[in-house]
User: Fold this.
Amino acid sequence: MTRTIPSAGLRALAILAIVLAVVSTGVVGTASRASAHAALVASQPSDGAVLAMAPARFDLRFSEAVSPLTLRLVAPDGTVTVLGGAELRDGALAIPAPAGLTDGTHVLSWRVVSKDGHPVGGSVVFSIGAASTGGAPVVAEVDRPIRAFVWTTKLMLYLGLVFGVGGLASDACIRRLGGGARNIVRSALLLGLAAAPLAIGAQGLDALGASLGALGQPAVWQAGASTSFGRTVAFSATAFLLALLALALRRQAARRAVTALALLAIGWALAASGHAGSASPQWLTRPAVFVHALAVAAWIGALVPLCLALRGNGPSASASLRRFSSLIPWVVAALFASGLILAIIQIGTPAALWETAYGRVLLVKLALLGVLFALAGANRWRWTGPTLQGEAIARRRLVRSLAAEIVVAVLVLGTVALWRFTPPPRAIVIAAAQPASVHAMSARVMADLTVTPGHTGPVVANVSLMTIDYGPVDPRQVTFVFSNPLAGIEPIRRAAEKPGDGTWQADLSLPVPGRWAVRIDVLVDDFVLERIEGEIDLRP
Assistant:
């Protein structure tokens, strides 16, 4: 007799999905304003700069490798020019500037994809001649419905992978799926398969900063498929198709072989993109993601078939429970070990748990996992023994506890999907360590100045010098002069030393963020002093 989840359980899951959608929309809207996965660490022109003449090109330097998605220049009158021809030069994205730029305030709006597959956007505001009286032209931001769309499709993929492919795996490890379990597994697989193309479209909309109305445009789908997340969707779709094939096979050996391939595809899917999969060292993080994904699918995927088997109290229910109880400690051990490795790499320091959006999402996930482990512990040490001895009350309570585990597991998956919008602390630390830089020149000497790290506090100023025709310069003395008039900080002077690598450097402390004026006094000889002036932006 085919059994299904009670209507009360279905209503609870529906209410839970609605609550998750509402909460995620608010969190996603907030997270979208947080730091990016790949951070812009320097630009030429710098943000807020006022130039005497139009630049020949724009340079954008990021904390990690990126690929351009959309580059637009918004003129003072609001005219938008799509920029092309961008290429990587010395680690920076070089973008040819269009000819005939007018005086006033311009906005260079950029959108790139970082190596973890997540799109990143931002703008650099600069003026030619003088700032426009009406301020900078407005560049539209990505709307919240797009973020909610991305979250929803990602959650659908997770549900398909865990309850579909993972549920099918219990057929090989615990018992042959009953009719009710087969229907639920098949429904989860079809849900994931339907979500796969939608996830590509959602990724493309997010990548290009487009609205939902652009979903039918080929460029949107091309942009979504071209990121590393496209590989994740491809492996996920492969897992769904293999699992559906396994459901249709009658020979047990063939069914188990195809199911094993579907499980492997889960690991490949989640290791192909995302924060953890792109973190260093990848020889450790990618296998850890692979193991973590398989452990989650094996544990959570088995809950629905086991719950239905115990609820039906068929002849194989006790055997299924014994088999599950013997295997689950090894699965949880693999889950815990791989998760701990990934958390340490991503978080870095304990303070990041409450100081970053990523850490706060992790705290929510850990709280939910605490509930999940508590339920699992009660099941194992309180209800499993009496159930195997035939106590009906213990069996009913075990079924209710397993149903509660399923609900909490859905909450965990919904929380994990929010990580798409939060940069991990390790990425923030990498970005914070990047130097601030400026290229400036006088009539006869030009300088490339870097301030490392590019944020407030103790820093090292380093400059390389050459003539304007790229010849060598061997000055007698170099002095740095930093000031921040808006913060009321008068000039800070430091004599530079030559460490032996052809550059000049000095240690100093810059206490406040914002725009600093910098002057480099280059004493070429007893009679020639070149003064090179520029500006740098320091992060907090």
Observations:
- The chain is about 50% helix and 20% strand.
- The CA atoms of residues 83 and 98 lie 8 Å apart.
- The chain has a mean pLDDT of 83.
